[in-house]
Please model this.
Amino acid sequence: MSANHLFRLPLKTYAADMVKSINYFRNPEPTRPPPLWLTSLELGRCATEALSLSLYRTRLLDGAQGDGHPVLVFPGLFASDRSTWPLRKLLNDAGYRSYGWGHGTNLGPNRAEDLEGEIAALVDSVYSANENRPISLVGWSLGGLYARLAAHMMPDKVNQVITLGSPVNGSPQFTNAWRLYELVSDMDIDASDNEQKLALIAKPLPVPSTSIYSKSDSIVAWQLSCAASGRHQQNIQVPASHIGMAFSPLVVQVILNRLQTPVSAWRAFEPETRFERLVYSV
Model:
């Protein structure tokens, strides 16, 4: 299906896909990728979220009390540090020291790369630049897998992990991006090396972690973004698109809340107002 058809689904196809997708939203186990009718709405939703972030930016920063610790942000597949700049700029203004990953466009790991080595070198660099202060890792989509891998490899250098719409728990075939991933990375997602990495990523982390997911995510099946239960692990559902998740004020509010919560006194995120209880599910 071409990109043009993807975002201009015929009415009959659109309606039929909506009917077929009813069980998708109810089933706690992934059975299919997100429905295409959701994908057709993605760009418009992303634009709305980006606009909302600019409108609510001042309000989000009200009361923000960052302690200056470093925050490393990993972009998603086919994205670069440009996509995470609005979030990183806001985190800087909130009192943190944010960093992009610095590796250009994220095309996923390929056979020639030492993924673990590159991630370790990046974490080491930020850790050293901040006088050996543990880092909070924020990963968007595929970037969330890198963040979790880093936390497993070097937990003494990681403060906490926050993932946004990341397929952290299940087969990538329940996403709408896995074929493109195989194409650009020249790797089979079912390859044994890939499966070993995914198995490690899915394990509970040795540091506090928060997985933010959306049932209306049109790229990653929402069930994949629900991490396995563990000590100091929480899954938080928000209404957000996939490619606009890091621009959503609702998501940014949770990120700021988690970053402000000391690891030594970790507590789960709890919606406090009537509005928060309406939009967040924990």
Remarks:
- The mean pLDDT is 91.
- Residues 93 and 101 are 19 Å apart (CA to CA).
- The domain at 3-20+32-279 is CATH 3.40.50.1820 (Rossmann fold).
